[in-house]
């Protein structure tokens, strides 16, 4: 007779341990699979790295340009301040992007180099869309206009011209449009995303403490539309930028500015023949006809291929052209939102930029500094840390600021101490004001999640700034005093740097945003010009003629950055790829959610497409 007790005991043990054994094996197999996949990905990256090294080994980075060549320019990618140091840029793997993308620095170098290159006979501007800020576009257009002084031709062609692409194309000798194509010409607009409705649905209150009637960066959290002061300032600076836009097109195309305004305002350019009728283009041609014209201009038989080189291949890489002079001018790139810490090539970390300024300041070979700023602002404290290094540098050598698409709020804070400030007519600047935001999420936790809070504290203000309850009136007053103090410091430092009274700076401050042209009229900038103008001014102030450009800070090592925050980079890559032009809204929302501390920043990032 079997021992039923033993059987029962065995069955119980089996029932208890079997699930755990299954989980154990699942874990083991999952770990093995993860290891295999990780090994596979690393193996692929290693192959790509080796391929990149082999492809560049023995190369001096220069491309051989045949005589009688045409420089092909097609800027169909977002344009950054500096070219990414990416060894995989020209490789294709797993369907990922592979085209090399130039930064503004190398785009300008390439066009300048082509101006004096006897092998380059002209430029073919393959224009469609242009993803950049308006000041960036201005610098490229000015470089093309300067190129034309050599007597060489520029021919522009596209099937569809965005407004930005058309503005760039107006630097050309001839503009051609596909007979079935179109020109987007309708004027500029600025749009702000408002979060008030979202916060209300979530029972979240944005507690705002600010200084500045025009400080509109807080409006998306407390309003569902623009305030009247904000509408007034946007109308003003956007109108200034549009006036410059139309004026430059008018000069190039010899069309009265009021006619251009009417064409855009009435949407009269609806068909290719309309563009030709109103002299917006020089002809309606198919691409083969344009290529035939290029062959004629370069004296090539119609049966032969045009000799061409792309700007991406042609442009000299940073540091490629060595100068013999021992004198140096340091160009320091401050790009992105301002924050404490290291930052990276896309954000302004106070430690990284301060260290770069300090390094240039203490280097006896560096005779002058050009601080290139492209920033909407950010942390007031981080801005002040960078300002301090600028002040120290100014005591030992000239410091010139060159403003890009925007240098506003915190971006202007770090600029104001310079000897001289250059901006483009369409640079967004000013916004001298500060604010702080502390969300009250009590109702969100209570009503939406069923979470409550309780605790103890050793003092009345020990939990000041907590998001689990609203601020008291006394706490609001304390924070308001700190924001007022920061604004007072900001306006005083601007007044000292610009040699104006603090009351005057307050009158044009209050968070108000200006275009570069408006800023020049109000004494916030000294001259309208590009980065080359700023460099020339720095050399003049330093009393040097021969010099070498050195760029700071050192760009992030591409191999190291490949493995740093790789998950975030992969996520951003696919989100950007999926959203396309709408990625800007994703960025705005992400930026809004990451605000902390007293801020000096603006919500504008105007682009024309």
Automatic annotation (TrEMBL):
Active site: 215 (proton donor/acceptor), 409 (nucleophile)
GO cellular component: membrane
Transmembrane helix in keyword set: yes
Membrane spanning residue stretches: 27-54
GO BP annotations, alphabetical order: signal peptide processing
Domain of life, source organism: Bacteria
Annotated keywords: Hydrolase, Membrane, Protease, Serine protease, Transmembrane, Transmembrane helix
The Peptidase S49 domain, residue ranges: 147-300, 394-545
Main location: membrane
GO molecular function, one term: serine-type peptidase activity
One Pfam family from the record: Peptidase_S49
Subcellular location: Membrane
Protein family (similarity comment): Belongs to the peptidase S49 family.
NCBIfam families according to UniProt: SppA_67K (TIGR00705), SppA_dom (TIGR00706)
Name recorded for this polypeptide: Protease-4
Native organism: Daejeonella rubra
């Amino acid at each position: 007779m079997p021992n039923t007790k033993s059987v029962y005991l065995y069955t119980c043990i089996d029932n208890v341990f079997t699930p755990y054994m299954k989980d154990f094996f699942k874990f083991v197999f999952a770990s093995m699979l993860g290891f295999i996949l990780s090994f596979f990905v690393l193996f692929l990256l290693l192959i790509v790295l080796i391929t990149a090294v082999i492809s560049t080994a023995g190369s001096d980075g220069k491309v051989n340009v045949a005589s009688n060549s045409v420089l092909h320019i097609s800027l169909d990618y977002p344009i950054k301040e500096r070219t990414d140091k990416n060894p995989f840029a020209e490789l294709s793997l797993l369907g990922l992007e592979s085209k090399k993308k130039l930064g503004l620095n190398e785009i300008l170098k390439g066009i300048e180099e082509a101006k004096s290159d006897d092998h380059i006979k002209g430029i073919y501007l393959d224009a469609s869309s242009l993803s950049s800020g308006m000041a960036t576009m201005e610098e490229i257009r000015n470089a093309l206009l300067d190129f034309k002084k050599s007597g060489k031709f520029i021919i522009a062609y596209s099937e569809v011209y965005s407004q930005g692409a058309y503005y760039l194309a107006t630097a050309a000798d001839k503009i051609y449009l596909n007979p079935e194509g179109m020109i987007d010409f309708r004027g500029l607009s600025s749009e702000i995303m408002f979060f008030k409705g979202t916060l209300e649905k979530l029972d979240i209150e944005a507690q705002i403490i600010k200084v500045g009637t025009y400080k509109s960066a807080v409006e998306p959290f407390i309003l569902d539309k623009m305030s009247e002061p904000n509408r007034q300032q946007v109308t003003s600076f956007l109108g200034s930028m549009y006036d410059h836009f139309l004026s430059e097109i008018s000069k190039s195309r010899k069309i009265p500015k009021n006619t251009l305004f009417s064409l855009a305002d009435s949407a009269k350019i609806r068909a290719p023949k309309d563009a030709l009728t109103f002299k917006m283009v020089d002809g309606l041609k198919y691409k083969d006809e344009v290529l035939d014209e290029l062959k004629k201009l370069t004296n090539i038989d119609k049966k032969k291929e045009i000799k061409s080189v792309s700007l991406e291949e042609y442009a000299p890489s940073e540091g490629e052209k060595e100068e013999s002079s021992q004198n140096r001018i340091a160009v320091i790139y401050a790009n992105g939102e301002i924050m404490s810490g290291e930052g990276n090539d896309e954000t302004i970390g106070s430690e990284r930029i301060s260290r770069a300024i300090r390094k240039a300041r203490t280097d006896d070979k560096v005779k002058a500094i050009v601080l290139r700023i492209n920033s909407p602002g950010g942390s007031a404290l981080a801005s002040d840390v960078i300002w301090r290094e600028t002040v120290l540098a100014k005591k030992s050598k000239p410091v010139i600021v060159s403003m890009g698409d925007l240098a506003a709020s915190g971006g202007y804070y770090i600029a104001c101490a310079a000897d001289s400030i250059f901006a483009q007519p369409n640079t967004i600047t000013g916004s001298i004001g500060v604010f702080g935001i502390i969300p009250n999420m009590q109702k969100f936790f209570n009503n939406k999640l069923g979470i409550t809070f309780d605790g103890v504290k050793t003092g009345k203000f020990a939990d000041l700034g907590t998001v689990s309850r609203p601020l008291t009136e006394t706490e609001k007053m304390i924070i308001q005093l700190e924001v007022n103090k920061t604004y007072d410091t900001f306006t005083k430092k601007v007044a000292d740097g610009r040699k104006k009274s603090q009351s005057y700076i307050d009158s044009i401050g209050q968070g108000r945003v200006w275009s570069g042209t408006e800023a020049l009229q109000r004494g916030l900038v000294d001259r309208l010009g590009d980065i080359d103008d700023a460099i020339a001014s720095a050399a003049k102030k330093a009393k040097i003629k021969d010099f070498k450009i050195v760029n700071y800070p050192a760009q992030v090592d591409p191999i190291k950055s490949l493995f740093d925050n790789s998950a975030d980079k992969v996520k951003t890559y696919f989100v950007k790829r999926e959203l396309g032009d709408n990625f800007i809204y994703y960025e705005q929302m992400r930026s809004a959610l990451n605000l902390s501390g007293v801020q000096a920043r603006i919500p504008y990032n105007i682009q024309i497409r």
